[in-house]
Amino acid sequence: MSVSLRKPGKFESNPLDTGGIAAIRRHGRGAQTNRSGRFEPISYQPADDGWGSLAELEALSTEVQEVPARRIITRNDSPDIGFDRSINPYRGCEHGCIYCFARPTHAFLGLSPGLDFETKLFAKTNAAQALERELADPSYRVETIAIGTNTDPYQPIERRYRIMRRILEVLSAANHPVGIVTKSALVLRDLDILKSMADRGLVKVALSVTTLDRKLARAMEPRASTPEKRLETLERLVDAGIPAAVMVAPVIPGLNDMEMERILERAAAIGVKNAGYVLLRLPLEIGDLFTEWLKANCPDRASRVLSLMRSTRGGKLYDAKWGERMRGDGPYAWMIGRRFELAAKRLGLNESSVELRTDLFTPPSLPGQQLSLL
Question: CA nearest 147: which of 130, 174, 167?
Answer without folding.
Answer: 167
